[in-house]
Amino acid sequence: MTETEAVLAAVRERVDPTAAERERLSTAAERLVERAEDALAARDLDADVVRVGSTARGTWVRGDRDIDVFVRFSPSLDREELETSGLAVGNAVLPDGHEEYAEHPYVKGEFEGYDVDLVPCYAVESARDIQSAVDRTPFHTEYLEVRLDDELAADVRLCKQFLKGIGAYGSDLKTEGFSGYLTELLVLEYGGFEALLEAAATEWHPPVTLDPEDHADASFDDPLVVIDPTDPERNVAAVVSAANVARLQHYARRFREDPRESYFFSSPREPLTAEAVREAFADRGTRALAVRFGDDSLLDLVEDQRYPQLRRSLDGLVRGLEKRGFEVLRAATWADETAVLFCELSVAELPGIERHRGPPVHVGEHAEGFYRKYADDADVYGPYIDGERYVVERERSVTSAAAFAEEELESVALGHAVERLVETGEYAVLADADVCVLAEEFGEELAAYFEPRP
Amino acid sequence: MTETEAVLAAVRERVDPTAAERERLSTAAERLVERAEDALAARDLDADVVRVGSTARGTWVRGDRDIDVFVRFSPSLDREELETSGLAVGNAVLPDGHEEYAEHPYVKGEFEGYDVDLVPCYAVESARDIQSAVDRTPFHTEYLEVRLDDELAADVRLCKQFLKGIGAYGSDLKTEGFSGYLTELLVLEYGGFEALLEAAATEWHPPVTLDPEDHADASFDDPLVVIDPTDPERNVAAVVSAANVARLQHYARRFREDPRESYFFSSPREPLTAEAVREAFADRGTRALAVRFGDDSLLDLVEDQRYPQLRRSLDGLVRGLEKRGFEVLRAATWADETAVLFCELSVAELPGIERHRGPPVHVGEHAEGFYRKYADDADVYGPYIDGERYVVERERSVTSAAAFAEEELESVALGHAVERLVETGEYAVLADADVCVLAEEFGEELAAYFEPRP
């Protein structure tokens, strides 16, 4: 047995479901489907019941306890009927469950120890005809069921665990990583986990485009493009960030060079204390700036709404700072009980004046306008001529990064929920030593920040 | 009389040579030519004697005391014979003079109170056949003599004085301004001083190209191109900087808007004291850095060699500072008894670390090389992944602008004479309060620096 084989065998020992686990899950799932069918019959509803997701396809990782059951109604039903009937069946099957809402409502509940989603959808002809995003899911299961044999399913489990270990698993907008379905398609396309790693390590030059059914009917501007075999107009990997593609490439190379079980199981970071944060800034000689939000209007957003808003706001803050000459070394955003835009600065203070370049002297009215505007302004130096242009040195509106965050944050592009809070001043600016208090809430994030890994 | 006419009449009163002055100069110049002709005859040399320059063309400004006399030898003479004979005649005419060297030697001396250059050259057929740069000069005088009437000559004087007043007169490489010959051609081309101002104020969009004889036979990459009427391959305005073209445009507009005599006669600056320099920096909130050279190898250079070297060195210093993150607000170079590269900084100090962006992770060997180089380096943070790339944060080689000037000045592009001094460490770095000592030597330059005008 090679070293790689030994490591993969050891990982399999940890991620493959046990026979007893499979048996239990299979029995529970069958009973669930029966109950759903009975509920439909009792209400004289015309629909079929299908299992979807990783536990239906045999690709779940040991310990996952999710069973997804879809109830497919006729596409002729209107949306309201679908919702009413769907919830009726869901509540009958999962009497202790509760209703949730994605594109339309469904019932979530516990059944014999499993976390169950019972989701109504339309039984459309093909994934191209979907009326709601969830209509697509049964097609994925159909497609994979017949193609993933036990060996490939085992490799899918290895691959999911590897992506979890390197922090690239999950299509939520906080992670921007690989979804379960995408992982399955990649393993299927390359014929196994190791073949996928080989391709990622040695062949991928983003944009990487894969089209298993060779039927692409749209073009995409993403670093990884995997055309959905059930829908030629959809990129299954649309959410995967360039960083997560690079991360998979990086760790694929590391694993192939030195196979170790530890790549599959990341160890949590030791949270940093406030004192350690202070020391880290002292060692680096940099300046700190944080903008902190405590308002529920932002924090109650689901992660898939909150993180894009925070990232957009962080990007706006960084651009705003750099445009005004405050050089940002690195930035990050975190959210838990509060949300934080965190910037580490190389330059946090600037002089009272800044250079302001005017038009070339020869551009007639524009140049004259510039000259006249400043000629009698006692607060500016100049206008003088530099090369062919007028230049003045005028007062800077803010001379510190903290003052910018306090006074001019409204001027940058922010996420909507963030923008509202900034407009009403519902945020706090922390500078330098003050940011250490963030260690109470974001100790692990700060640990990862100051000891960054690929 | 319009306001403009009144102002121009008042300026003429100050710049037109008096009748007595003309008479005296004319007599002295005739005697000089005679003496030169006698000296040629006595040596049995075949050459003719011509007067050139502004006093020959009637375009000199009152008080100028330069008489230029050229002795034109046959082009068949070899260079050595030309020099020997030229100097012999020169020394005979100006027995108290001394030899100077431009492209070849000539004699400079005083004659009846005038400063005289007695220059040997070749009597070539046309300015295109010149064997030495000075051969061209008599053609300029020939060309202008017949075209500049008294009225135009008077306008040339106005124009020269205007250019002096705004600091744009002189083709030396410190000024990079308008030569006398160029001024004459411009006034001739536009038909007068006011017409030239009108064109500069309202029509010029550099590059501006004028070709009085419509015979250009080369192309030029200069903001102002005036093809020499005596040489289709030469731009008479080659030395004029973009700033001086812009300066003429700016002051042309000012004068047309509000004609004032003061534009023609700039008042000298009141030198700044060391204390005033300190206050200026305090007001502006900026940081100072100066590199000062006291070595004769640089200071003994003629200005036309020294200033290009200093400017090139200043440019190198500024680029070097900015490349390393030290933002330069403005910079200048001055020379007198010492030479100085002077920088005013917005950012003079930076943290101990800097961001260093590596290659995209997918570029195979290059990416692997970067990763390996830094993976086990305890002094860097990272490598981590940002977007598709590796990034590290590594130690900065210098954390202050002064340290850069002290330790890394060799790394930037410098003028040759400056480079030698930097290599051997023969320079001093002054930072912040220390630069105030420059006021002793460069008080006027510092006054102009802190109260800049177009």
UniProtKB/TrEMBL annotation, chains A, B:
Which residues are recorded as binding CTP? Answer: 54, 57, 140, 160, 169
EC assignment: the record states: 2.7.7.72
Annotated CCA-adding enzyme C-terminal domain ranges read 284-430
Annotated GO MF terms: ATP binding; CCA tRNA nucleotidyltransferase activity; CCACCA tRNA nucleotidyltransferase activity; magnesium ion binding; tRNA binding
- GO BP terms in the entry: RNA repair; tRNA 3'-terminal CCA addition
Q: What class of enzyme is it?
A: transferase
Q: Which domain of life is it from?
A: Archaea
Q: Where is the tRNA nucleotidyltransferase substrate binding domain?
A: 155-265
The entry describes its oligomerization and partners as: Homodimer.
Q: Which NCBIfam families does the record match to this protein?
A: cca_archaeal
> Per the similarity annotation, which family is this?
Belongs to the tRNA nucleotidyltransferase/poly(A) polymerase family. Archaeal CCA-adding enzyme subfamily.
Explain the purpose of this protein: Catalyzes the addition and repair of the essential 3'-terminal CCA sequence in tRNAs without using a nucleic acid template. Adds these three nucleotides in the order of C, C, and A to the tRNA nucleotide-73, using CTP and ATP as substrates and producing inorganic pyrophosphate. tRNA 3'-terminal CCA addition is required both for tRNA processing and repair. Also involved in tRNA surveillance by mediating tandem CCA addition to generate a CCACCA at the 3' terminus of unstable tRNAs. While stable tRNAs receive only 3'-terminal CCA, unstable tRNAs are marked with CCACCA and rapidly degraded.
Protein name as annotated: CCA-adding enzyme
Instruction: Cite the source lineage.
Output: Archaea, Methanobacteriati, Methanobacteriota, Stenosarchaea group, Halobacteria
